[in-house]
Amino acid sequence: MLNFEYYNPTKIVFGAGTTATLSRLVPETARVLLLYGGASAEKTGTLADVRAALAGRVVHEFGGIEPNPSFETLQGAIAQVRAERLDYLLAVGGGSVIDGTKFVAAAAVYDGDAWDVASSRGAVVQRALPFGAVLTLPATGSEMNNGAVVTRKATHTKQPFRSEHLFPKFSILDPTRSYTLPVKQVANGLVDAFVHTTEQYLTYPAQALPQDRFAEGLLQTLVEIAPRALAAPDDYDTRSNLMWAASLALNGLIGAGVPQDWATHMIGHELTALYNIDHARTLAIVLPALLHVRRDSKRDKLLQYGARVWGITAGSEEERIDAAIERTRTFFESVGIPTRLADYGLGQEAVEAVLAQLEAHGMSKLGERRDVTLEVSRAILQHAL
Amino acid sequence: MLNFEYYNPTKIVFGAGTTATLSRLVPETARVLLLYGGASAEKTGTLADVRAALAGRVVHEFGGIEPNPSFETLQGAIAQVRAERLDYLLAVGGGSVIDGTKFVAAAAVYDGDAWDVASSRGAVVQRALPFGAVLTLPATGSEMNNGAVVTRKATHTKQPFRSEHLFPKFSILDPTRSYTLPVKQVANGLVDAFVHTTEQYLTYPAQALPQDRFAEGLLQTLVEIAPRALAAPDDYDTRSNLMWAASLALNGLIGAGVPQDWATHMIGHELTALYNIDHARTLAIVLPALLHVRRDSKRDKLLQYGARVWGITAGSEEERIDAAIERTRTFFESVGIPTRLADYGLGQEAVEAVLAQLEAHGMSKLGERRDVTLEVSRAILQHAL
Questions:
Q1: Sequence-distant (≥ 6) Cβ neighbours of residue B143 within 8 angstroms
Q2: Which CATH superfamily is domain B183-383 in?
Q3: Alpha-carbon gap, residue A151 to A103, rounded angstroms
Q4: How confident is the model at residue A158 (pLDDT cuts 50, 70, 90)?
């Protein structure tokens, strides 16, 4: 096991009907900015429930945070916080709204250029406004970690950052909030949580037995619930397991004491920034190709993954690895997410464009061994055509 | 999944050589009371390392906290904190020292009778001194939760309590600290962590898939590492997995959103209080008998446990349950811990004595369904003879 520090002070309040607990979770004297995305938070009644729980408090609102929240859009929220002297943020939505809220929490109290918060990967963040979240979309895990990604539209840059000051004080996870999600978003959530897990698991053996078992348990859970998650939107147990599994996949626990990869994410971010492909879909494109190209480096863990998650125990090592990768690809396809660049209308030109962006963003040493060079990324993208 | 709140702000610093981080973890201006147990902390060099990391600080010391820390002993530490106006506690040891430190943290700033802290099960605790821990014995999980047990020797009472104010600020987990432990204590730790897990897992199905997988993963890990944990005291990977698994077994995570039992612990506490049997050994006596007596109530989870942890898939339901219980008993025996009351020189008189204590302590409705009456406890104890 590698040395590690683990710290996660976010309080999780989980279950149907828990939005009312906002009245005790948000300090009474707080001057709140409620941040949300599109019309769905209004239409589903979530915003109404939130407003009711905070009735009588000072609550301002900022809507319109888009998927892959943009630096440009978030300027408006920062200005509003400063103009109204607000001191507490409440994100109502999925990972994009929560990520955007983290950016606002740090940037609103930062004295320099707001983009520094992201471009420094959070290093300049010395403090942040306190914030909580009401989660509506299980996927990114942002509700229980201190990381975020914002996009600068002007330069097609998706920039991850994190800071110990950016844990939500609390997150309310009510699985019924997910009942009205489009099937496509549920499928994206399944794949997002799955790949968050593999980024912290499919590396090289570090003799971290509980972490491996936990990661495998999350992958097994996601595979087990996927059919009903798509087919039965109001199955409470299924949606509960999806919501909690997605949080557990990226709350720091399964990644503590083990090597981490994240090359799939970094390559995927460029696909989103260039072609506006949903984040999870970029992961479904990149991961199977990456596992194929990196099969030697990841051999031991791929065999373990095949055996424990998919029950693959017969055949030569190469056959078992092939089967494990194929089952992964088939799983993504089974939830309706295509796994080839061609499925998104992209060809060789995309390979070149993504490589140019990776180079421009300093992404020439990716992966758990920092040996996913641009040439390796090229091989991965070629295999994903 | 049941509704739940999960909150755990303890920072874990894990790995060989991490004791030096005390210098940044303990506030510079803190007036520290360092609490420890017997001579081993001195002999192994742990205390020397701690003192070196805190050189130049105000550090007082209180040694002599015994296994099953007593209210009577801890009075001395409370008096010392008050006399020297100390404001930060540092536990160096295993679960007993950390539990005792939690009691001191709460009682030293409580205005009434110190025993109220325990007898109210923590309800009277409105605040506590901040404290950290340097763990030397993987077993109880106290280093990453807000619960503790203290014993009032005068009345043979083991009293559990907990409070949101009693999470350690940090815990340092250095697996090499466990190298010098007697084999008996390592065996106790394996069984303690195992039964902490089953108390939160072997109940009735709650459709909490990640929690089940995590619990099974911890049980599998403990079974897998047990032989080398006993035979190879300086195997870093094995001791790392034992230490981290024991913390994960009782940090609140696998118990969030699921029913919990704890009858084995409550019955076991009486055995310790009456006959001074090591805590883990009482669990090894009670659990197999409890599973046998409660087999109908726990049927579904016993079958799942048998299949997933022990690979038992052949035979009738009764046969599979018998096999799962037998594997559990054999596991405890395999680490050198006897599982019958007779092995500890106890017979029918102990059954009566424990029942009288359970009744005196209001323990007549135990278990995940609150239907472990005194008569059920009698059946369990009879089966454990």
A1: B10, B95, B98, B133, B135, B168, B171, B173, B247
A2: Dehydroquinate synthase-like - alpha domain (1.20.1090.10)
A3: 11
A4: confident
Tell me the two tokens of residue A18.
């828990």
Query: What is the CATH architecture assignment of A11-177?
Result: 3-Layer(aba) Sandwich (3.40)
B135 bridge partner residues: B93, B173
Chain B: which residues have CB within 8 Å of chain A? Answer: 1-18, 175, 207-210, 212-214, 216-218, 220-221, 224-225, 237, 240-241, 244-245, 248, 253, 256-257
Mean pLDDT, residues A215-223 = 98
pLDDT tier for residue B156 given thresholds of 50, 70 and 90: confident
> Is residue A25 pLDDT above 90, yes or no?
yes
Q: What would the two tokens of residue A220 be?
A: 């097994």
**C-beta atoms of B3 and A12 within 8 A:** no
Q: Which of A158, A161, A97, A159 is nearest to A131 (CA)?
A: A97
Domain positions in chain B: 11-177, 183-383
- Amino acid letter at B269? H
Q: Does the pLDDT at position A156 exceed 90?
A: no
Instruction: Give the pLDDT confidence score for residue B380 in this predicted structure.
Output: 98
| Residue type (1 letter), A32 | V
| Residue B38 in this model has a pLDDT that exceeds 90 | no
> In 3-state terms, chain B is what percent helix, strand and coil (to 5)?
55, 15, 35
Higher pLDDT, A158 or A75: A75
CA–CA dist A149, B63 (Å, integer): 49
Query: Would you list which residues of chain A are within 8 Å, Cβ to Cβ, of chain B?
Result: 1-16, 18, 175, 207-210, 212-214, 216-218, 220-221, 224-225, 237, 240-241, 244-245, 248, 253, 256-257
Per the CB < 8 Å rule, is B3 touching A15? Answer: yes
Chain A partners within 8 Å of B167 (Cβ): none
Is the complex ipTM higher than 0.95? Answer: yes
Cβ <8 Å between A11 and B6: yes
Least confident among A153-157, A308-312, A340-344, B162-166:
A153-157
- DSSP states of A135-176: E-S-SS-GGGSSEEEEEEGGGTEEEEEE-GGGS-SEEEE-GG
> Model confidence over B46-90: pLDDT tens digits?
999 999 999 999 999 999 999 999 999 999 999 999 999 999 999
Cβ separation of B12 and A5 shorter than 8 Å?
yes
Phi and psi, residue A150, nearest 5°: -120, 155
- Could you tell me the CATH superfamily of domain A182-383? Dehydroquinate synthase-like - alpha domain (1.20.1090.10)
For residue B16, list chain A residues with Cβ-Cβ distance below 8 A: 3
Alpha helices in B54-204 (DSSP H): 71-83, 95-107, 115-119, 183-199
Q: Provide the percentage of residues in chain A whose pLDDT is more than 90.
A: 98
pLDDT at position A38 over 90: no
Neighbour-count burial for A350-379, b at 16+ CB within 10 Å, e otherwise: bbebbbebbeebebeebbbeeebeeebbbb
Residue A321 amino acid letter: I
Instruction: Mutation target for B interface from A213, A216, A219: give the one with most B CBs within 10 A.
Output: A213
- C-alpha to C-alpha distance for A197 and A184, rounded to whole angstroms: 20
- Residues in A closer than 8 angstroms to B17, CB to CB, are 3
**Nearest Cα to A153, choosing from A234, A298, A272?**
A272
